[in-house]
Design goal:
Elements (H helix, E strand, L loop, with lengths): L8 H12 L4 H25 L4 H27 L12 E4 L1 H4 L9 E7 L5 H16 L4 E7 H10 L1 H8 L2 E5 L1 H17 L3 H18 L17 H14 L7 H7 L2 H25 L8 H10 L10 H29 L16 E3 L5 E4 L2 E4 L2 H6 L3 H11 L3 E2 L1 H8 L7 H4 L2 H13 L3 H11 L1 H5 L1 H4 L15 H16 L8 H6 L6 H10 L10 H16 L3 H12 L3 H8 L5 H11 L2 H16 L8 H18 L14 H8 L4 E5 L13 E8 L4 H11 L3 E9 L4 E9 L11 H15 L20 E3 L2 E5 L7 E8 L4 H11 L3 E10 L2 E9 L10 H15 L12 E3 L1 H4 L11
Parallel strand pairs: 2-3, 7-8, 13-18
Antiparallel strand pairs: 1-2, 1-4, 5-6, 6-7, 9-10, 10-12, 11-12, 11-16, 14-15, 15-17, 16-17
């Protein structure tokens, strides 16, 4: 059924009258209007899929809602509860407020309504309001409704900034037009006379609260399109502020023209349109008012928005890069508008600096001064006369521990054309950048501001190519540039002793590093090769050399930076994927590193890199693995012929019981001694006499109990004692047994029984894929290495992470008669990467041949089980084997 024109009464009267005369008028009216509303909403959906601008689509959805509300109002006021000769007190009108009042709606947005009356409530008014709301609720719509008099609207909006915000966008829908106009005009006159500063301050405070709730970091890889930093609400806040300064100007256009340059206004309009389009698609994909652009929507969103892959960069990553560049632009617009507001003295007492007194103080650099506690610039001419001051501005901000004034921020963004190839090679400019990076007090904060102005990417093109870049996986929580800046901040915190309790080794070693500038340059450049055709490491090394040469870095330092970028994953890979108790592993890594200084640099870089991946990724388990490798390689460099301490020595009581022929199970703290559950996972150690299938039986027992293994180590001593340590969580990602301690003790009993060979749990059924992991199709890969494992072969398997995977892999290895001498379990978001040192039934290294070819095939089959079909009808990103070595370090769930 095609929806009739909104204001064509002849086309709808008959059907409405018939529905209102039904035995159950509410149900009949809801059914009729539901059909009309659904038909009216088909048009904007078609237009959206056809590529129409996002704002225009939002207006069409608002128009469909207008038709619904007009029809519903007529049924209530003209048919069911008519007033043929209403008195002045019985006048009623329906007003759209909030976002609906602005005339834009997403497919499942709330309808913000105001039923307006002149004075006190009347019985008829209550009947009309009740009927309208009940029908809307019957239709499944979310409604924000209020019934007020004109005076109540004015009185509330004087003190309640939320009410004032809603009424700033009031728009007549139906009913007594004169009554609505009376309220709107009185409201606008009141706002025009009021001091705008309390309202502006309230909107800024509301923004800060919203950001804190949705995530204060602009570059989280699953952003909130509506409420997140750089989202639609930030643009709406500018609308509201503009309307409060010029309430009679449509959408505050007059004020926005004064606050923003023509280029900034174009950016504003493009960002508004882009975000509305994303939001509309997101609602339709979810079938509800979903505002968070999670992984399971991103690839389909990219397809709907018309993005295509290019080279090694898939469409989803190109689209998300565009999203984050828009988010950055929104932040720059907010700062620019704030600068202009302060210049107009609209916020003298209630500024962004939270009531800092307005005073100016000149600084040592000509043209720079402190304004209300923030660093500002005398004018654009300062940069025109000396473009190097674009960089030295940030040195000054760091030296004096000052935030950048919005006016200065705006002047930097408007001066980016001054960043020419000549400036990029200017030694003074390079020195200013290196001063902030390597010698700054707060490099994370200052470099972040440089990044948001666009200066950092303009000055260093290698950096510019990773601004807003995402990696479509569950491991990395931030865009590449934000991750890198956070890693730089971590190193600074380590150097200043702020993380001594969490990283005691790094805190000691960072002060023994001879070339701190090389460390910071390597950290800054370590990911600039992501997405490159040669792979992250090689392309990163090439880009790092190019950047260092342009900055005029000493050739020896350049070589060190390039080596660190090319090998920045090595320490983590060796620590988590190889047996560091094996002297062969220690010697191989020492040969790769070459000298103690590089070892120290790699340690600090690795710790910062892992910690900056995302919340909860770093833990003491990873710390212990990295510390063990570092200490053993450091001893090797000292020439100490020390015996490699077997992990069994850390658990003498357990090992003693195993040597006596018994099996023993114990819950450990992350350091390995007896203790309680800590660090987000339960650490369970199992010691027992070694036997065939031991590891497979333990893994199957964990899977049967629903324990997700997020880390594991297994070692076997020459005397036939096996020690397996598992780091396990429950299905909710908490330490196993934390919520229900009895489950943990039951699991320990079953593990002890399995270690003795008394119970053999059946292989677990392949579970359904996790909804978040369903967005990713991970290619299975099996590598068999005969060179690095000494007397054993190393089998490394990689595939989509899922519960039961470790048990399935261990079962296949056992079925082929292979004995696991050492196991190293890790995960990278949706991908599992597990390494096994194996021997045959006679304790010898397996040889290449048909048997291992069959093993490889069976392992690939197991890895592919439970992989989701391409979700939501689109082809998901398929990770390659090369990605395995470049993803970074752990967190996965499987057993």
């Amino acid at each position: 059924m095609t929806a009739p024109p909104i204001h064509d009464p002849d086309a709808i009267d008959a059907e409405l009258v018939e529905a209102a005369a039904a035995k159950n008028p509410r149900a009949a009216v809801a059914a009729l209007l539901g059909q009309r509303y659904a038909a009216a909403r088909e048009r904007p959906e078609r237009k959206l899929n056809g590529g129409m601008d996002g704002v225009e689509v939002a207006r069409l959805y608002s128009g469909a809602a207008d038709g619904l509300m007009n029809d519903l109002w007529r049924v209530a006021t003209e048919i069911l509860y008519p007033a043929h000769n209403p008195t002045k007190a019985e006048r009623l009108s329906l007003v759209a407020v909030g976002g609906y009042g602005r005339g834009v709606l997403a497919p499942f947005s709330d309808l913000d309504l105001l039923v307006l009356r002149p004075w006190k409530p009347t019985p008829r008014g209550e009947q009309v309001t009740e009927f309208i709301l009940y029908v809307l609720w019957d239709l499944g719509l979310k409604v924000g409704a209020a019934t007020r008099s004109v005076e109540e609207c004015l009185s509330l909006s004087r003190t309640d900034m939320t009410v004032r915000t809603a009424l700033l966008e009031a728009r007549p829908l139906a009913g007594d037009a004169a009554l609505t106009e009376e309220m709107i005009q009185a409201f606008r006159q009141m706002v025009a006379k009021a001091d705008p500063r309390p309202f502006i301050a309230a909107k800024l405070e509301e923004r800060d609260t919203r950001h804190a709730k949705a995530g204060v970091v602009r570059y989280r890889v699953e952003p909130n399109v509506k409420d997140g930093k750089g989202g639609l609400r930030d643009l709406n806040a500018l609308f509201w502020i503009a309307r409060s300064l010029a309430p009679d100007s449509p959408l505050g256009a007059r004020v926005l023209e004064e606050l923003l340059t023509p280029k900034e206004r174009r950016t504003f309009e493009e960002a508004f349109d882009f975000l509305w389009k994303v939001r509309a698609h997101l609602h339709l994909m979810a079938g509800r008012a979903e505002e968070k652009l999670t992984f399971d929507f991103q690839a389909e969103m990219a397809r709907r928005m018309g993005w295509r892959g290019r080279g090694d960069e898939p469409a989803v990553e190109r689209f998300m890069r565009r999203y984050f560049i828009v988010a950055r632009d929104v932040g720059a617009l907010t700062r620019s508008a704030s600068a202009q507001l302060e210049a107009r003295q609209q916020k003298r007492a209630m500024s962004l600096s939270r009531l800092i007194p307005n005073r100016r103080k000149a600084l040592e650099v000509e043209g720079f001064y402190v304004d209300a506690g923030r660093l500002s610039v005398a004018g654009l001419g300062v940069f025109d006369a000396d473009p190097v001051k674009l960089l030295s501005l940030f040195v000054c901000a760091d030296r004096h521990d000052l935030d950048l004034h919005p006016d200065a921020f705006s002047m930097v963004t408007r001066s980016l054309a001054l960043v020419t190839p000549k400036l990029r090679r200017d030694r003074a400019a390079a020195q200013a950048f290196l001063d902030v990076l390597a010698r700054g007090q707060r490099p994370y904060r200052v470099l972040t501001i440089m990044n948001e102005t666009g200066l950092l990417g303009r000055f260093l093109p290698e950096w510019g190519r990773i601004v807003g870049q995402t990696q479509f996986n569950m491991y990395h929580a931030y865009t590449v540039d934000e991750h890198t800046l956070q890693a730089i901040g971590v190193i600074n915190d380590i150097a200043r002793g702020k993380l001594k309790g969490e990283h005691p080794l790094s805190t000691d070693i960072v002060h023994r590093i001879v070339d701190f500038e090389a460390l910071m340059l390597a950290m800054f450049l370590h990911d600039v090769g992501k997405g490159g055709e040669r792979g992250q490491l090689e392309d990163g090394a090439i880009a790092a050399r190019r950047a260092c040469d342009r900055l005029g870095v000493d050739p020896r330092r350049t070589e060190l930076v390039v080596w660190l970028v090319r090998n920045h994953l090595a320490l983590s890979d060796y620590a988590q994927k190889r047996d560091v108790s094996d002297p062969t592993t220690v010697r191989a890594f020492a040969e790769l590193v070459g000298d103690p200084e590089r070892l120290r640099l790699l340690l600090v870089l690795t710790v910062a890199d892992i910690r900056a991946v995302g919340p909860g990724v770093w833990n003491s388990w990873k710390g212990q693995l990295i510390r063990n490798l570092y200490e053993r390689v450091e001893a090797h460099f000292r020439g100490e012929d020390v015996a490699i301490a077997d992990p069994l020595a850390d658990h003498p009581d357990l090992v003693a019981r195993a040597r006596a022929g018994a099996a023993a199970v114990e819950v450990l703290n992350p350091q390995g001694s007896g203790g309680d559950i800590t660090s987000g996972a339960a650490h369970i150690a199992v010691a027992a006499p070694d036997r065939p299938r031991l590891f497979a039986d333990l893994a199957a027992t964990l899977a049967e109990a629903g324990a997700d293994v997020v880390g594991a180590r297994a070692v076997t001593a020459a005397e036939g004692v096996a020690l397996d340590i598992f780091e396990v969580q429950d299905g909710a990602g908490a330490a196993y047994g934390e919520a229900e301690p009895r489950r943990l003790w039951t699991l320990m009993e079953r593990l002890e029984q399995a270690a003795r060979g008394e119970r053999l749990p059946p292989p677990p059924a392949v579970p359904k894929a996790n909804s978040r992991r369903a967005a990713f199709e991970v290619a299975p890969a099996v590598m068999i290495d005969f060179e690095t494992g000494g007397e054993a072969a190393v089998i490394e398997v990689s595939g989509g992470d899922r519960p039961g995977l470790l048990a399935d892999v261990a079962r296949v290895l056992a079925d082929h008669g292979l004995s696991i001498r050492s196991a190293h379990v890790a995960g990278f978001g949706e991908r599992a990467v597990d390494s096994f040192y194996v021997t045959d039934s006679r304790g010898r290294k397996p040889k290449p041949g048909p048997r291992l070819d069959r093993l490889r095939h069976q392992l690939e089959t197991v890895l592919d089980q439970g992989q989701p079909p391409s979700p939501r009808g689109f082809k998901a990103v398929r990770a390659s084997l090369r990605d395995v070595s470049e993803l970074g370090r752990t967190k996965g769930g499987r057993s």
